Amino acid sequence: MDDPTPACRAREMRRSVELLGPLLFAYLLSAPVIAGAQDSLRTRHSSIALLTRFSQVKDVYNYGLAFAGGDLGVDYRTRFAQGNRQWTYEPRLVLGVLNDARAGIAAHFQLRPVDLCHAWRLGNDGPLMLGPYAAANYAWQLYPKLQSGHMFWYSSLELGVRLFARAKVRDRVLDCRFSSALLGWASRPSHTTEEYWYALRFRDWVRNPHTDLVFGGPTVFQHIGAEVALLPREEGRLALAYAFEYWGYSLFPGIKSLSHAIHLRWPVGGKRTGS
């Protein structure tokens, strides 16, 4: 029997990865339950943040023009710590107004309903934790002057890796994180799916970002994030953080987005420990 061609091997590898993706996502969901059965001590900490961002969006549909402006958003974060492991859930909502001197005002908003991560500590009592994450990201853009009533979007269902680190600076603690998407599915509007925003119904808002999904890795889409937070001296106080985020889509129709943000984060619900 002849060896499979490179194209066949590539299809088989892609099919295997597409099957492994949902399994990893299911593992991330079940990890706290599995860990809870093994560890007797569990700690939960939740917080909410108000974020102010400066964002830039460059969409190939806009003939090379770059829109820039301010965003306001809300970020919720809950963390379960169990021994040398932790599990986090971090949804986010961001609304903003972008501007280009030649093309006018644009509306921009993002929704991240799912962001799950399960990380392990590297070494006993070490400052680093590393683990996989699974996230669903949605971003919509509206350019009234340049593109009439057309609505554009970028969405990704992604799997990646996230690194956590802590460092003590005098009497304060820096809490740092870095994440990068490795593979997943991304969607951009095409001429067959892109419609006028005022003609869209709720089901269109849900369905459209899941159409024309393209599977791939960094050669297809990129999503990189980093955050550095200065933790308060006493629990229950505000924490200040700087965050950076980049995401892009390399195929047609391409898009790039870059943002810098300041977060003001405060705890909610208190710190809870139980067995």
List keywords for this structure.
alpha+beta, 3 helices, 12 strands, 16% helix
Q: Would you kindly provide a written description of the structure presented here, covering whatever features stand out?
A:
- The protein has 275 residues and is α+β, with helices and mostly antiparallel strands.
- Helices cover 16% and strands 59% of the residues.
- It contains 3 helices and 12 strands.
- Strands 1, 2, 3, 4, 5, 6, 7, 8, 9, 10, 11 and 12 form a 12-stranded antiparallel sheet that branches.
- The protein is globular and about 55 Å long.
Helicity level, as a percent range?
10-25%
Q: What is the string of SSEs from the N terminus onward?
A: HEEEEEEHEEHEEEE
- How does the major sheet shape up? 12 strands, antiparallel
Number of strands: 12
The helix-and-strand class reads alpha+beta
- Work out the strand percent: over 45%
Question: What's the assembly state of these chains?
Answer: single chain
Q: How many DSSP H or I helices?
A: 3
Which regions are unreliable across 5 or more consecutive residues at pLDDT < 50? Answer: 37-41
Can you give the mean pLDDT?
Answer: 83
Radius of gyration: 21 Å
The gross shape turns out to be globular
* Span of the ends, CA to CA: 58 Å
